[in-house]
Write the structure tokens for this entry.
Amino acid sequence: MKKNAENNFSSDWVKYSNYEFVQINEETYIKPTEDAEYEIYDPFLVADNILVDILNIGRLAINNEFEVCNSKILEFVRNYGLLGELTFLPLNSNIVYQKKTYLPKGNQFTNKEVVPTEEYLKYFLVADKKKRIGIEVAPNKTIVISNSNEATANIILDKGIEYNIVFSKGYSEKLTWFVEYAQNLYIVFDAIENFGKEDNEYERKMSEVYIKSFVTSNIACRVEMLKEPTLKWDFNSLKLAINTIFLLNETTQKKTVKICKFCGKAFSSQNLKAEYCSLQCRNKANVYKSREKNKK
């Protein structure tokens, strides 16, 4: 999806200069390193890169190449930041001002669909070694978040109080959440890209199931007057930004992120007719085609 090819898009997210894996209770978490510095960037400026990278992480996970997959995930968050699961998942907004957080059925945190907000926020502070973030319940039953001056990025972006956690060095996300998301996104991508090409009726039906299962919501946007009228997206998370970029790519005739017809990797090309991620894959595909013709 080439930025400004058809519309002017703008958004923002926060990433840190470095992240690390932290092992806690036999679980792996991803969090910013102690010396990392934050940066605000526009995901739409690197939309194709984000999409290609997350999809190929999903492909590695499906193929059980977890060592390479984990390395690519760390590279991904260093380039684009964490997914922002804390703000992506809740069905209710402004959760800090509410006693309870409502979650989708079958969510990755708990078998409950309603949890106390204080409990929900702490899912993301497991790796907060220095306890930068403090969470208390005020007399009026609202949540009070205190931190050590790490909300500078959030002040600039003018987002809700819960982003004081998301944009802090104390915030962390489980590695397994990332793997599961990337894997599921690739499955939907593969189903869309190859839809109608399957000879097997069962496979066609499964593709339909995967495609229909991809549902995203809570997208807010407005017009902002920059050099020209620009659609300013107010994403609640990087995950929602990726979902939107994915949908925009898959529903346009000018698709720039595609699936390689030979190896299955996602790749980006401004050539609308490109079918292979590399010259090597194109040559190998031609060899296979030639062999099939000779057999006949």
About this structure: The chain is about 40% helix and 20% strand. The longest strand covers residues 19-24. Residues 2-6 have pLDDT under 50 and may be disordered.
